Amino acid sequence: MFNIYNKYGKYKCIAACVMAAGVVAAAPIAHGAQTYPTQPIKLIVSFPPGGGTDTMARFLGSTLSEKFGWDIVVENRPGAGGTVGLGALARSAPNGYTMALGETSNLSINPFLYSNITYNVERDFVPVVSMSSQPMVLVVRSDKPYKSVAELIQYCKENPGKLSIGNSGTGTVGDITGRFFAKEAGLDVLHVPYKGAAPAMNDVLGGQVDAFFASSPAAMPQAKNPDIRMLAITTLEPIPQFPGVPTLAETLPGFEAAARMGVLVPAGTPESVTQALNTHINEALKDETLRNKIMAQGNIVLGGTVQDFTDRIKQDSAKWSAIIKEGNLRIN
After folding, report:
1. Is the pLDDT assigned to residue 13 strictly greater than 50?
2. pLDDT classification of 35: cutoffs 50, 70, 90
3. Of all helices (H) and strands (E), which one includes residue 18?
């Protein structure tokens, strides 16, 4: 934090003067004897630069800067499936100047998958606000005999153990979604992990694997590919990014799966700061430019209260931990 302070010292002074003049868009929030924020806010990203999470962080930071004059410094802390970054957040001072983007993988899957997690989600973090939800898309080659989820299920039941479902890696949201699908439909399938979405999609196209639960960003470039058929999306309602693609819930009522993303702060952060962040980020999520950028990545824009995000983490953790336990999945 000391280095950040020096690097942005001049900006901090200007921002403080502007706030004193009363022309900042957001009203000052009481934080001890000062207003909040009075210095740059570090936003930890648990994945490398250039990826989806990093892109979303920079979208958010840019909007908060433009709308409210806040200075958001994105810091990438990748490693161990996104757990390194959240470990760093857990060790940060709860003063309102460090937050992180958490998502389904490192909040509701990895704590039950990895044996050496250095944080406890309920103990170490305060959820601030949900930002977005990224569904999965069930894709197959267009020459496969099943043209719907119902036909795929029927094929599996008539040919137990013969259908292979690819995913972008063991323990990813796509992997857990595929296992959830097999469980809910009562199917015997082979789960095939890949090192990323690209090789999994290539093997669907090449016929080496029968189906793939792809993230929406991985599926979107295939929308006009005549060799790919999108059987279903894992939202409860259709979304505009995938016109004509039915929901999996139409065949399996209530089926829903997504990689959700939201902002967290360390436990012990003053409630006034948490509420200030919630209010301002919710306001930022109303910005049409930001909404369009989020949706262009295949996401659904969320927002909501602190309690909304808290409840969703608990619900996802309960659902995915059961699938992980049933599949006897573990990463050391």
Report:
1. no
2. confident
3. helix 9-21
Residue 268 backbone dihedrals phi, psi, to 5 degrees: 95, -10
Average pLDDT, the chain: 90
> Given pLDDT bands bounded at 50, 70 and 90, which one contains residue 81?
confident
For 131-214, where are the alpha helices, taking DSSP H only? 149-158, 173-185, 197-206
> What is 2-133+258-326's CATH number?
3.40.190.150
Residues 313 and 316: their CA atoms lie apart, in Å, by 5
The strand pair at 98-103 and 41-45 is best described as parallel
Per-residue pLDDT at 115:
87
d(CA 231, CA 220): 13
Cα angle for residues 138, 141, 145 (degrees, 5° grid): 95
Give the CATH architecture of domain 135-250. Answer: 3-Layer(aba) Sandwich (3.40)
Predicted pLDDT at 330 = 87
Q: What's at 295, amino acid-wise?
A: M
Whole-angstrom distance, CA of residue 249 vs CA of residue 233: 8
In the DSSP assignment, the letter for residue 221 is: G
Assess whether the previous peptide bond of 246 is cis (omega < 30° from 0): no
Based on its alpha-carbon atoms, the radius of gyration of the chain, rounded to whole angstroms, reads: 21
